[in-house]
Amino acid sequence: MTITESTGQVPFSAFLNSLKETLKSVFYERDNIEKFIQQRGFPALVLRDIMSRNPLSVAIPEAYGGRGVKVKECLGVLETASYESLPLSLVFGINMALFLEPVVKYGRIQSKATSSNDSWRSRTWGD
Question: Which one of 14, 57, 90, 118 is most buried, by most CB atoms within 10 A?
Answer without folding.
Answer: 57
